[in-house]
Amino acid sequence: MQNKKIENNNQTSSRKLEHIKIALKKNMEFKITNQFENIKLIPKIDKKISYNNIDISTLFLNKKISAPIFISGMTGGHEKTFKINLDFANAAYELNIPMGLGSQRAMIEHKDLIYTYNVKKDYNIILLGNIGVAQLSKYNINQIKKMLEDVDADALCIHTNPAQEIVQPEGNLNFKNAFNNIKSIANNLNYKIIVKEVGNGISKEVAKELDSTNIYGIDTGGAGGTNWVAIELLRRSESDLNFIKEWGIPTAQSLIETKYAFNGFITATGGIRSGSDIVKALALGADACGIAMPILKSQRKGKNEIIKYLNTLIMQIKYEMKKLNCRNIEDLKLLKFNINNPLKTVLKQRHIDLNTFQSKRNKI
Ligand code: FNR
């Protein structure tokens, strides 16, 4: 029994490393797009805005951040991941943006690994803790609280990833009490909770159900970026589940569905790759955008490359806003927009009333 436990602990830790290796080695992105290409923002007219006066600061967990972006949770839990998390934290600190941790399950199972997540010791940043929804059945609230305290987290992200778990050779399919567990932890844990997908998207039905709980926010984690099913398929000996590979709700659609049904804080993640994606997401009602894979790829080239990459995105956001004559993020949320096909048809089929969506989106 004891040996089996050690084996499982090591399995969680080495899987974290394997994920990073596979994610970096091949093109592990969806073929389907995030659908932001079908959102057309209509510029405000005749308002001369100078690039230097554009303000992209915003609030994240009620704290001011310098740009509406964050490093989405990726790693921790293996000795080799400490340096990666430190480099992410350095960039988050330099640019005054938040950072997420990868699943902290490994540090609950293995106290020796706490240090691989503990970046706030060196950098005073907004830090998001992380655990899988399936693990909420396994750990009690005190263990989760301790896990967050050990790294001085500012909030807890609960990732829900049924598609990944189905394909993962050692996947946990125990989602039976997922909703009740989320509800219970949101009622009893004194931390803000964000429920996040990891690339298959949150639907309006899920967002509506989550709206009835005390959670603080939703991260859409839509399709169009990193493809976790594809990554897990490479760790699997059979190719029997290849057909799930391109399954998921694209990020732009998931954002609109989530904004339609959920009244809290919303972030858009999943294939966010340009200033244009970010500006469109903000205009559609996102409070901020998360980015994962490109930041990991930059980190491999050196820690300053992360800052360089993010500064390019920040510059792109400002140029997009100048193009649209928007001085700040509030201006973006008042822009008119068109939605082109196929997204327009899909939203109609999903019974999303665009007038209702407009009025929700304009609430700042
Ligand atoms: C992730 N992601 C992730 N999410 C999570 O909640 N817990 C985790 O442990 C991880 N681990 C992880 C490892 C690596 C290497 C990557 C690239 C990503 C998912 C991540 O936070 C994000 O939701 C998706 O990757 C989609 O964003 P991108 O990569 O398309 O920008």
Q: What would your notes on this structure say?
A:
- With 364 residues, this protein is of the alpha/beta class.
- The protein has a single domain, classed as Alpha-Beta Barrel (TIM Barrel), CATH 3.20.20.
- It has 15 helices and twelve strands.
- The strands form three sheets. An eight-stranded parallel β-sheet has the order 4-11-10-9-8-7-6-5.
- Strand 10, helix 10 and strand 11 form a beta-alpha-beta unit.
- It is globular, with a radius of gyration of 20 Å.
- The termini are far apart.
- The structure holds ligand FNR.
- Ligand FNR binds next to helix 1, strand 7 and helix 11.
The fraction of residues assigned to DSSP E strands is 5-15%
Based on CA atoms alone, the radius of gyration comes out at 20 Å
Highest-level CATH class? Alpha Beta
Number of helices: 15
Overall shape: globular
Catalogue the unreliable spans. Answer: 1-8
Element-by-element helix/strand order: HEEEEHEHEHEHHEHEHHEHEHHHEHH
CATH superfamily: Aldolase class I
The largest sheet has its strands arranged as 4-11-10-9-8-7-6-5
Annotated CATH topology? TIM Barrel
Sheet with most strands = 8 strands, parallel
Cα(first) to Cα(last) distance is: 53 Å
Helix/strand/pairing class, anyone? alpha/beta
Portion of residues in helices? Answer: 40-55%
Keywords:
about 375 residues, eight-stranded parallel sheet, 15 helices, about 15% strand, globular, binds ligand FNR
Topology summary:
Blueprint: H1 2-25, E1 39-42, E2 58-60, E3 63-65, E4 69-71, H2 81-95, E5 99-100, H3 105-109, E6 127-132, H4 141-151, E7 155-160, H5 162-167, H6 178-188, E8 192-197, H7 204-211, E9 217-219, H8 228-234, H9 251-261, E10 265-269, H10 275-283, E11 288-291, H11 293-301, H12 303-323, H13 329-332, E12 336-339, H14 343-349, H15 354-361
The structure holds ligand FNR.
